[in-house]
Every structure is written in structure tokens, then in C-alpha cells.
Amino acid sequence: MQFKFRIATKVFFGEGCLNKNKSEIAGFGKKCMIVTGRSSGKKSGALDDMTKALEELSIDYIIYDKIENNPSLENVADAGKIAREEKVDFIAGIGGGSPLDASKAVAVLAVNDIQPVELFNNAFDNRPLPIIAIPTTAGTGSEVTPYSILTRNDIKNKMSFGNDDIFPAVAFLDARYTESLPYSVTVDTAIDALSHAVEGYTNKRSTIMSDIFAVEAISVFGECLDNLLTNKIDYRIREKLLYMAMLGGMVISHTGTTIVHGLGYPLTYYKGIPHGRANGMLMAEYLKFNYEAIKDKADNILRLLRVGSLDEFGKIMKKLVNTELSLSEDEITLFASTGAKHRSVAQNPRDIAVSDMVSILKNVFKVW
Amino acid sequence: MQFKFRIATKVFFGEGCLNKNKSEIAGFGKKCMIVTGRSSGKKSGALDDMTKALEELSIDYIIYDKIENNPSLENVADAGKIAREEKVDFIAGIGGGSPLDASKAVAVLAVNDIQPVELFNNAFDNRPLPIIAIPTTAGTGSEVTPYSILTRNDIKNKMSFGNDDIFPAVAFLDARYTESLPYSVTVDTAIDALSHAVEGYTNKRSTIMSDIFAVEAISVFGECLDNLLTNKIDYRIREKLLYMAMLGGMVISHTGTTIVHGLGYPLTYYKGIPHGRANGMLMAEYLKFNYEAIKDKADNILRLLRVGSLDEFGKIMKKLVNTELSLSEDEITLFASTGAKHRSVAQNPRDIAVSDMVSILKNVFKVW
After folding, report:
1. What does the pLDDT average to over A271-284?
2. Cα distances (Å, whole numbers) of residue A245 to A96, A213, A214, B6, B206
3. What pLDDT is attached to residue B132?
4. Are B10 and A14 within 8 A, CB to CB?
5. For the complex shown, is ipTM > 0.90?
6. Residues A137/A94, Cβ–Cβ less than 8 Å
């Protein structure tokens, strides 16, 4: 038995948890930079709660609300420059995966005047600023991971950086912040979270500890599945989804992801498919391709989800993502070769070649 | 749903994990104080591994090897004074619960010149030194908790202090260090770990997250039960026990303990019963007393342990602890009133009075 266990984040979960535990913020300094998207912070109510808490604690703050969907290096560099100039003491990321991941990059850039591409070196002269993470989706799990996924326009793909220093120091998880999400975003992000659990559970870096979180996450997704399919998503279900997404983050903090993410990134970059939805399209084929190598775990996933077979699982995912996509032969070649460069290839349960990636993509998508 | 989740410790688990990950120690400073008992560090091999690692890293160290079983305030004050005078940068606790808990007190006292009784204020002017924890028993779980249990001779009882700052920064869990333990210590400490899981799982502060760890720990204890009963404890079982003990620590980090610990402390203080054994004597009666309030969980504990009934569980514990103890009426009165002062009383699944504690003790022990 051999494992490393590390979740550096202190998590507060529950309705009103930010206000109830705002004293946790007090020690981080005198000036905060809130990093968020154009609307998620406001619509969710999380931005108001956070600014109110900061005001009550007499902490100054500035708001950077220009984080894009799938934030680019240019985007985080812009925010990082302002954080440096404004000499903020800590960062509060509010939003879905994009603002949360961006906040991690900003925490580094605020105290390291480096080119944004140097983020991918994963080692910095100065320790990143403390990060507070407040998710407004139940998917990314970024609030409890040491990863930040950024879009590199120079290589036309998404890429992650990270080390233990960018674990958020504190995370506030309040399902009320996810109540304003449209159905499609709720489903896409829930699938992203499931994907984290499934990819972590089945990949070669899984450990006895990460499996505990994965099994719990998959089981909780199973409890929510009917509600997701029928769009009966009340507060109780939203809490379960937020809990599951956090668990998924705890899983991949230890295992990383797999080619589901590796093949999903080009689908997002080139075809604009939302990240979780891209994973959902690929997950069943990933499990089928690897089935013999992970039979016990794959069967356990189906049992936990209360789904009869991988084919049925594929149908359910298709129903949830509800997207038809056709790819050209050239696109398939490009996406497969992009996927083959993803570092998770080495963690795949069985050896996987570019030709296998082509097959997976052709099994999922229409080819024209 | 409402919970806090916090395990600040970075855990490395597995054979040779200290040597493989010694770079983790490098950042803590130039001088280390190793806090250990008279023999556990040496016999286990952990002390040699640690001093070798420190030498390879060119880190100075001093060794304080006078930690008592059930360390007193006087004992940790002595070590703390030396740590202050020697201006050490970090503390390495090596041993069972006694040295690990002592190392936490020393980490505080090294940078806070306070009376040892002030430890129980749980707030300190200066942040405790970083702690590295290397358990040589599989029981306490102290390597992943923010608690330190010390013996107060002034009130003739054990008492705990703690806050998030005394979570060990890093823990190295290598089951080889537990191989030299005699059978009785292996069993007593394993029961302590089970007790943490059972008490955390059933007490009022249990959360959805702490339950994940508790269920896994109880299940792993169940896998080891036959081996514990028949003294067939090979390396594979020792790894499971060490893993289970860590999980037990993660549980009580979130829940605290119960009156099993509250009533167990006077048995240790006055009668010299080893801590885990004291818990083992009391656990079945605790579950019986609370059964109606925790029926589902109690039944699940029996299912996970593959034990048919609470009576059978009591018999198994009795066989494991293998101790006959008679108490006088006066002792029972004293122990019950001591237990009633334990802060876990408020967390008991159902209301519990001193008279109930008397009944529990009388059900367990012969009275003369």
C-alpha cells in the first residue's frame, strides 16, 4: 500500500456558511482582490455575500470581473498585473471553474512578475497569495484542487499548472449559489464532476484513499441521476451535486484526470462544447475501451449508478448532454493527436495509441 | 447538509515513505527537535530513518527522548523549555500517541513562554512550530489530528488541547515501524483506532464526510479482526491497521470522541489500563446504551465488522482486551463523575446522566 494524501483546503459547506464563518477570512490581510466572471458572481448572490463579509471585517477589496469562459493566459495576465499593482494580500475566486482556476493564476502572478506561460513551470520564487474559493457551479471541484486549467491560444489547447501552494486556503460551498444556474449548465457541470470521480477511480494513479472519495461521489451522482434526467432539481439535489463535485475535486487532486479530459479539451477549444458536456460525450467510450483492464471498478461504477450496462450508461450520458456533433476526418486526426499529448496518457488503465483515440472519437461522433 | 472539512496534514503512506519523500522536510528550517519516548523511536527504526534523513539534508537536530507514557504537563514543559532555549525551527514527533501528542505541546511551548496549563486555552500569541509526525503504533491517529491529550496531575485526569495550527504539517506512515510492537500493544492500539471510528460515526457531531472515513475504518478493522484474535499479524495486516488508525484520526478531527474516551481516561489515570484497552472495555456498553438513538449506524457497524450482535461484539472486545478489572463503589462514583465532566457528554447520541455512567461501568466491571 502506497499513497500520498493531501487536501490543504479548509472546507465550509452549507447554507449561509460564508457569513457564519467569515472570521476565517480575517487573517489573510487588509486588501482582497475578488476574481470573478461577468455575471456568475452577481447572479449567484455569492459576490454580494463576499463583499458584505469583507465590509463587515473592514477589509478593502477590488473586483476583477472580466474572467472569460475558459480563461486565456492573456486574461489571467491582465488580472495578475492589476493584483500586483494594487498590492492585494489575498484573492477570492467566485464562480465556476473558469474564475476559480483564474484566481489561482492571479494568486501566483500577484507576487511573481513572470510571463504567464511561465505558470506552467509550476515553481515560483514567491509563494502565491492565499486563495478563498467560492464555487457557483457544482462541477469543477477546483475549490479543493491544486490545479488551474488555462487556455493557451499559442498551442490552441487547454493546459493545467499547479502545485500544493495553489490549493485554496478556504472554500465556502453554499448550494444557494448554484440555484440560478440554467438546467444545461447544471447538467454539464454535474457530468464534469462525475467524470472527475470516474477518471480518478479508474486511472493508474488511483489510491485506496482517492477511491473512497470517488465511490462516494459516483454513488451520490447515482442518487441524483433521475432528478437530472427529469429536471427536478431542488435545493436538496443541488446540495448533493455540490458535495459530489467537491469529492470529485478531492479525487483528481490525487489522481489527475484521463484521456476523457485530454480528448475533451480540443472539443471545447475548437468546437465550443462546454467542458463537462465534452467529458460526458466521451466517458462511456473511455470505459468501454479500458473495460478489461478495470473490470471490477467499471462494474462497480455501474452498480453505484444503478445502471445495467456500459451501453445503457452511454445512452443516459447522451440523453443528458443532448448534443449532436459531426467532425471531419481532419478534425478527428487533429483532436486525437492533441489528446495523445495530454499527460494523462501514461495513466490510462491500458496502453493507448493515437489510433485508439481516433477509434474512440469515431465511435462517439458522426464523421463527415 | 452542513459540515466543515479540514485535514491540514500532508500524509505519505507506504514502505520507505520517509526516505523517498525526505525533501518534504527540507523547507522547515535548519534545526529540528525530535520528540520521542525512551524506546519506541529506536526500536521501531523510525528514529534512525529520521536522523539519517536530517543528516542527508544537512539539518541540525537534538533528540528529546524522555516523553512518558501518557505525558504530563511537567513532561512537555521540560521538553518545551529545551526547544525554546535551543531555538529549534521545527519538531518531529516519533512514537505512539504519547510522543506525538507531546510533540504538539512542544511545538507550542517552543515559541510561547507560557505556563503549560495555558495550553488548554487553545490560543497562542505565536504560531506553533511546524510538526512532522511519524507514528510507531497504529492507533492514536494523532498524526492527522489537531489534538494533543495530556495528563494533568493537578486534576488527576487526561485533558486535550488543540487548534488547527497543531495539525502536523507532514506525516510519514510506514508500517515497518509498527512491526516490533508486542501483540498486546498492537491490539490495544488497534482498538483505540476502532474506537475513534465508532465514536466519531455515532456521535452528534458526525458529518457526511467524517462518516466516509469512519465507515472505511470500521470496515478495514473488520478485515483485520480474525488476524487480531489469532495473533496472525503480518506486514499486510500492519499496513491495514496503520491505514485504519489514520482514518480514525481523520474522523475524530471532525467529530471529537465520546464518553468512551471520557470514561476511559480515569481507567488509565487511576488503574493504569492502556488507553485503547480502556476504550475496548467500554465500547459495547456505549453502543448498547445509545442503541435506540443510533440504530442504523450501530447495525451498520456490526455489518461492517461482520459481527452478529452487540453482545457478540462485546465478547470479541473482551477476548481482545483480555483483562479482568474490579472496581470499588467509590471508584465507580469517582470515574462516573469524572466522565460526566468530559466535554463529549454533550455529543452523546442521547442524554446521559452520571447515573447512566455508573450503570455503564457496573455493566462492564465487577464491583467489590
Report:
1. 95
2. 11, 10, 10, 17, 21
3. 98
4. no
5. yes
6. no
